[in-house]
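QA checklist item 7 of 12: single-chain prediction sanity check.
[x] sequence parsed
[x] length recorded as 891
[x] structure emitted
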Amino acid sequence: MSISKTYQPKEAEAKWYNYWLANGFFRSVPDEREPYTIVIPPPNVTGVLHMGHMLNNTIQDVLIRRARMQGKNACWVPGTDHASIATEAKVVAMLKEQGIEKKDLTREKFLEHAWEWKEKYGGIILEQLKKLGASCDWDRTRFTMEEDLSEAVIDTFIHLYKKGWIYRGVRMVNWDPKGKTAVSDEEVIRKEVNQKLYYIKYKISPQDSKSASQEDALSDSQTSGLPDYVVIATTRPETIMADAAVFVNPNDERYKHLHGKSVSIPLVNRVIPIMTDEYVTMDFGTGCLKVTPAHDLNDYELGQKHHLQVIDILNDDGSLNNLAEILVGEDRFAARKKIAAMLEEAGALEKVEEYKSQVGFSERTDAVIEPRLSMQWFCKMDEMAKPALADVLNGDVKLIPDKFVNTYRHWMENVQDWCISRQLWWGQRIPAWYNEKGQWVVAKTEAEARAEFAAQGIEVTSIRQEEDVVDTWFSSWLWPISVFDGFKNPDGADINYYYPTNDLVTAPEILFFWVARMIMAGHEFRGKKPFTNVYLTGIVRDKLGRKMSKSLGNSPDPLGLIEQYGADGVRVGILLSSPAGNDLMFDESYCEQGRNFANKVWNAFRLVKGWEVDESLENKNQIAIDWFASRFNEALKEIEENFSQYRLSEALMATYKLVWDDFCAWYLEMIKPAYQQPADAATYRATVAFFEQILKILHPFMPFLTEELWHDEIFGERTEKDCIIVAKMPEVGDINLQLNNELNSVKLIVSGIRNIRNAKQISPKEMLDLVIKQNSNINYHSYLPVITHLSNLGTVEFADEKVTGAASFMVLTDEFFIPLAENIDPAAEAERLQKEIEYLNGFLKSVNAKLGNERFMQNAKPEIVENELKKKADTEAKIKVIQESLASLAG
């Protein structure tokens, strides 16, 4: 095929993605091959592609493409999550724009609107992933609320209820006033917020004393000049109407005279007791604590301990209700400001201080979370957590990097029961049924519920189903099983072949409430783990270290990046600096680097394709060919080792250096025929074969560019299915370490000569002579054709003595001289040599420090220690030779 001057990514991407789809290259069905399976962390149906998705899905695609080329039956299952809170909020907002309120609709009518919204917008993100090159088996696309997956959720709920692991009760939960639903602890984002600390006066109530001795004590306190009030510091003055008591530490001398007394709440004048508990911190605030059991988890537990009244003054939306007595209907934050003003006017506000504290926000709606007592459904986690913890601790499930194991262990050893109910309509409705008296049973259908009531001897006239739905995570924890119909068809071919899956790629922030729960579900419902490796990506941050977000305006549009730099360029850019578990400091320049790399490969291909070939010419490039074959295998071994340890960024960098440095900068320059001269056939065939192998190892990272070049006629005729996407990945062959090391020395020699040309401003076209004073046992005669060709040398001689009046440099222990007597300034040359000694001394110091480090010497592999000792010996030898050169200049 004719090849354009520059790579056109847009054309290649559209052409080859459609070709792959049309020819079924992404499709997987069970067969005799080894399966390699990834299930996508299902993005929300509300989602559009962001940089986190780009990173996560690029990693998955690299892994799946590589497995496919290794001959495995690669299956990447895509899908989306119904995202109860986020989707319902989107639908409510859409209806509002149409003048429709959710409260005016029946559940059925609202769900009709929700499904319409999902069908219209819910697949956007999956279509965007195709632009990235994601090679998912799109025929297997699943949705967490499709019929079969929803039925699995209901069945598992009933299963766990029958085991006694699901129960219903009133508990303190995290309430999202915007979403009007409970959310789990893991869906609460803690942020440091600038607040105000209000110091409020609660007046002591002498008339409420219960004994003469208490009255006497109060009288004594008043006559002794003590104030007739206590001061309590709070960040939430809007909750004072829900106060049930004031607590002091029993050991606090300041308040011993108030034990057993009462105070009246400002503005509402309700009298509450002063009580004691060692829970109160004496040195925080004033040492007095107001306790509102309905609106704080710690207060609730203190209230339970002391049997206090629970007064809930907030509505579902965070506004004040009738129990508040004042400012009824006002939003909680508006009420805070108004109550502060009212307290000040009433003389009950002593002072206000600026205060920083951690406040919980809903991950879904960004509303400030309200602790609230609520009747909810819960799932017991302690028994299910045990095998899931053991899997990670014994290595059956590997967390990558393993620094997350301790975090995981801490969570699992302190696991709390899971609040699984959500006060929404979009989601799987909880299979609980109530009669007119509020009695309830759990059953799949109304008919089964009536039968259950009858079996318990309970008469039922009317019956209604629970309004709440289950937490979205209660469906996605089944994902690795349900996508293969493991509940619908537990002995089916798919679930038995693909489960357990191989790798999961996800974010550390959902390690507990998705990853851990999937492991629990795997053991509970399949008797085995759901995956073997969990690759935990970092957070994508900007170059200032800030997390990318729409609100900060620091997140580029991923599709815009693909438009500008090409999908391959963006994939390379985002992977270049994304080590597992560490945050990625993303800069658009990485994508530019990726695009430049694509152009480098393209131009190298154009160079080779443009050569004329003469079959009669002798091959004079065998040393270069042998070297690159060995170097390729050496790099391939490094790449494979990096992949085996999930160091994808390092695997890419090793590939990048092999292609850019070794192949383009060195090998092609070694064997490139002279201007307008033909190449010999043996060199040409070897180079084309090398290029074919290079395209294979590049393909997982750069699928479009490599497929485009793969079909060029220089590789011979390709059949319709002979695509690089299913080509066999190269295997590591013979490595000639001596040859590789000696060629490294050759490259240093060539670089040394080029440096002298640059320093002396000598044209590359001007021939130079080279004299070698050899101390090593390298057979330079084998490499002279390469050195001469790359350095444009005239003569090369060997000498036993140093050459005076020449520019010189060293490679290992050998000295190289370029006779330039008329251009050599002895003083400048001495200065240059002195700087080189200073550099070598600094390097030697770092090597000695490493060798003198006891921990390094104990833990390092023998070959690494040996390498450091060789560095030390080589550097000492270099220093000695340079010192001799300095002495000769001085003499």
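[x] summary fact logged: The chain has 28 helices and 31 strands.
[ ] second reviewer sign-off
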